[in-house]
Write a structure and sequence with these properties.
This protein has about 450 residues and is mostly helical. The protein has a domain of about 160 residues. It has 15 helices and 6 strands. Helix 2 crosses helix 5 and helix 7 packs across helix 12. The longest helix is centred in the middle third of the chain and has 37 residues. The chain is globular and about 65 Å long. It starts with a helix and ends in a 7-residue tail after the last helix. The mean pLDDT is about 90.
Length: about 450
C-alpha cells in the first residue's frame, strides 16, 4: 500500500476539501441573507423577505450536510494524526473548542429560529436572528482559521517540560496576524461563492420564465455583491496574504511561481509548466516584476528562488502547489471580468435580456468552489513539509499504529458515504429551487 503518511494526507485532504464545499456557502449566504433582510426593511419590498426565507432553507440543507461531513475531520485528529494532536493539542484545542462550544451552537440555535420561528418571534426579532446567525457563522470561521493560522505561523505558545506545546498567550494565539489576513481572504472568498450561487439561481429562473420578480432581485444582489467580493479577494486581502507568504514562507512563494533562481524584477507566470527535474518552467508566458511587487511592494525587489533552500525544505509537490495557486489566481481574474460585465448590463437594465450572459452566470456557479478549494490546497501544500511550520514535520505528526491499508479502506468508505450525501443534497436543493420563493403567511 506504500507510505502510510501519504494515505493519511490523502484522506484528510479529501475529506477536508469535500467538507469545505458546504461551509463556504453557508458563511457567504449568512451575510447575503442579512443583506436581503436589510433591503427589505429599508424599501418595504416584501419580495426581498421572500428571497431571504428561500435562502434560509437552502442554508439549512447546506448546514446539515456540512455538519455531517465535518465530523470525520474531528475524528482524524485522533486516529490519523495522534502524534500531532498530542504535541499541539494544548494550543489548537483552545480554538477548536471555542468553535464547537460557542460559534457552532450559536449558529445552529438561530438557524432553527429562522426556519421555524418567524410566526412566533415576529419580523423584527427574525431580522436579529438572521444577524445572530451571520455572527455565529463568521465566528465559527474565525476560530477554524485561527487554528490553521497557528500551523502556518505559530505564535503564543511555549514548549513544556514533556516536549509538547502549551498555550503561553491566548490573545496572541487568537490575534495571530496571519489569522487576520487569512480570515479576511477566506471569508470574502465565501461571499464570492454565495454571490455566484445567488446569481446563478436568478439566471436560471429568468431563463425559465419563473418567479421573474424574485429572479430580478436575485440577480441584482448576486451580481453587485459578487463584484465587490471578487475585487476584495484580490485587493487588499489577496495582496496582504501574498506579502505574508513572502515574509514567513519564502520557499512556498518560490514554489507557487515555479521560481528556481533568485533575483530582482521577479516575474509572474501566466502560462507555463514547472519542470522540477530541470529546475525551470517550460513554455512560460510571464510579466516581469509582478511577483516582486506582490511579495514586497516594489517591482525591483529581490525574490528568492527554490535553489536558495535545501531540497528537504521544499513543498512536497511543487507542481501541485504551482497549479493550485494559478487556478485560484486565474479564476479570480475571470470572476472580476464576469461580474463586472454583468454589473454594467445590470446598470444599463439589459442583463435580463442578455440570454448568453445569463447562461454563463447560471453555469459559472461551480467555479468559485474550485477557486476556493485551489486556494486552500495552495495554503496547505505551501506549508509542507511542515504540519506546524518550523516545529513539527508532517511525517512526525502521523499515527504510527494506523497502517496504510486501514486508511485506504476508511477513505473508500468516506467516498461512498459522501457520494450518497451528495446525491441527497442535490435532490433537496433542486427541489427547493423548483419550488422557488414562497410568500410568508402570518
Amino acid at each position: 500500500m506504500g507510505d502510510p503518511v501519504f494515505w493519511h494526507r490523502l484522506q484528510f485532504g479529501f475529506t477536508a476539501a469535500y467538507h469545505y464545499l458546504f461551509p463556504q456557502l453557508t458563511m457567504g449566504l449568512a451575510l447575503l441573507i442579512v443583506i436581503l433582510k436589510v433591503v427589505a426593511r429599508r424599501t418595504g419590498d416584501e419580495a426581498y423577505n421572500d428571497l431571504a426565507r428561500f435562502w434560509i432553507r437552502i442554508f439549512g440543507i447546506n448546514f446539515a450536510v456540512g455538519v455531517v461531513t465535518g465530523i470525520p475531520l474531528e475524528f482524524q485528529f485522533g486516529t490519523n494524526w495522534s502524534a500531532f494532536s498530542r504535541f499541539a493539542g494544548g494550543v489548537i484545542g483552545q480554538t477548536l473548542g471555542m468553535e464547537g462550544l460557542f460559534a457552532f451552537f450559536l449558529e445552529s440555535t438561530f438557524l432553527g429560529l429562522l426556519i421555524w420561528g418567524e410566526k412566533k418571534i415576529g419580523p423584527r426579532r427574525h431580522f436579529w436572528a438572521a444577524v445572530a446567525l451571520c455572527v455565529g457563522s463568521w465566528l465559527s470561521g474565525y476560530f477554524i482559521v485561527a487554528t490553521n493560522a497557528f500551523m502556518q505561523h505559530p505564535v503564543g505558545y511555549r514548549i513544556g517540560a514533556d516536549g509538547t506545546l502549551q498555550l503561553a498567550s491566548f490573545w496572541k494565539l487568537l490575534l495571530n496576524p496571519w489569522a487576520h489576513v487569512q480570515y479576511a481572504h477566506n471569508m470574502i472568498g465565501a461571499v464570492v461563492t454565495a454571490s455566484f450561487v445567488v446569481a446563478a439561481v436568478g439566471a436560471f429562473w429568468t431563463l425559465k420564465g419563473l418567479h421573474l420578480d424574485h429572479a430580478r432581485r436575485n440577480l441584482r444582489v448576486g451580481v453587485i455583491t459578487g463584484l465587490f467580493a471578487a475585487l476584495l479577494v484580490v485587493f487588499p486581502t489577496g495582496d496582504l496574504q501574498g506579502k505574508l507568504v513572502a515574509k514567513y514562507q519564502p520557499v512556498a512563494l518560490a514554489a507557487m511561481e515555479g521560481r528556481f533562481e533568485s533575483g530582482t524584477h521577479a516575474a509572474m507566470n501566466f502560462i507555463g509548466q514547472p519542470n522540477v527535474q530541470a529546475r525551470k518552467v517550460d513554455n512560460p508566458i510571464r510579466l516581469p516584476g509582478i511577483l516582486s511587487f506582490i511579495a514586497y511592494g516594489s517591482f525591483s525587489s529581490q525574490v528568492k528562488g527554490l535553489n536558495e533552500f535545501p531540497v528537504d525544505q521544499w513543498p512536497t509537490s511543487v507542481e501541485m502547489l504551482y497549479y493550485s495557486f494559478h487556478i485560484m489566481v486565474g479564476l479570480g481574474t475571470v470572476f472580476i471580468a464576469l461580474m463586472g460585465m454583468s454589473a454594467f448590463l445590470l446598470w444599463r437594465k439589459k442583463l435580463e435580456g442578455t440570454r448568453w450572459l445569463l447562461w454563463i452566470l447560471m453555469l459559472a456557479f461551480p467555479f468559485p468552489y474550485i477557486a476556493n478549494t485551489a486556494g486552500w490546497m495552495a495554503a496547505e501544500m505551501g506549508r509542507q513539509p511542515w504540519i506546524i511550520c518550523g516545529l513539527m514535520r508532517t511525517a512526525e505528526g502521523a499515527s504510527s499504529m494506523v497502517h496504510a491499508g486501514q486508511t485506504v479502506f476508511t477513505t473508500l468508505g468516506f467516498a461512498g458515504l459522501y457520494f450518497v450525501l451528495g446525491l441527497l443534497f442535490c435532490f433537496l436543493i433542486g427541489r427547493e429551487i423548483a419550488h422557488g420563493p414562497v410568500a410568508f403567511k402570518s
